[in-house]
Amino acid sequence: MQGIVLYTKKECTLCDEVRALLDLFSVEVTEIDIESDPELHEKYFLEIPVVRIKEEELDYRSIDYFELQKRLQ
After folding, report:
1. How far is CA 26 from the centre of its chain?
2. What is d(CA 56, CA 47) in angstroms, rounded to the nearest whole number?
3. Matching InterPro entries, A to Z (predicted)?
4. Residue 2 carries which DSSP code?
5. In the 3-class helix/strand/coil scheme, how is 15-29 assigned residue by residue?
6. How far apart are CA 35 and CA 63, in angstroms?
7. Which helix (H) or strand (E) holds 4?
8. What is the distance between the alpha carbons of residues 14 and 21, in angstroms, rounded to a whole number?
9. Domain segments of the chain as ranges
């Protein structure tokens, strides 16, 4: 599986939880700190963590084990 990106920021407990969930699937994840880019910060500030799988984005409201499992198959 390619193209998995986790948008996160420092000291984000929800981001840590989603990272742990992704680790359960043994997939390669690119982690991007939204605070390193003003445009990303503006776009995702209230939505993180956000997982992008290929071209689909899941924000914190829709990320759980079963949703990730379905999209990572």
Report:
1. 14
2. 14
3. Glutaredoxin-like, Glutaredoxin-like_YDR286C, Thioredoxin-like_sf
4. -
5. HHHHHHHHHHCCCCC
6. 21
7. strand 4-8
8. 11
9. 4-72
Residue 34 near residue 9, CB atoms below 8 Å: yes
| Residue 15, both tokens | 């981001």
10-residue averages of pLDDT along the chain (73 residues): 86 96 94 97 95 93 94 89
CATH architecture of 4-72: 3-Layer(aba) Sandwich (3.40)
Give me the pLDDT at residue 55, please. 87
Eight-class DSSP state of 57: E
Count of beta carbons in the 10 Å neighbourhood of residue 12: 17
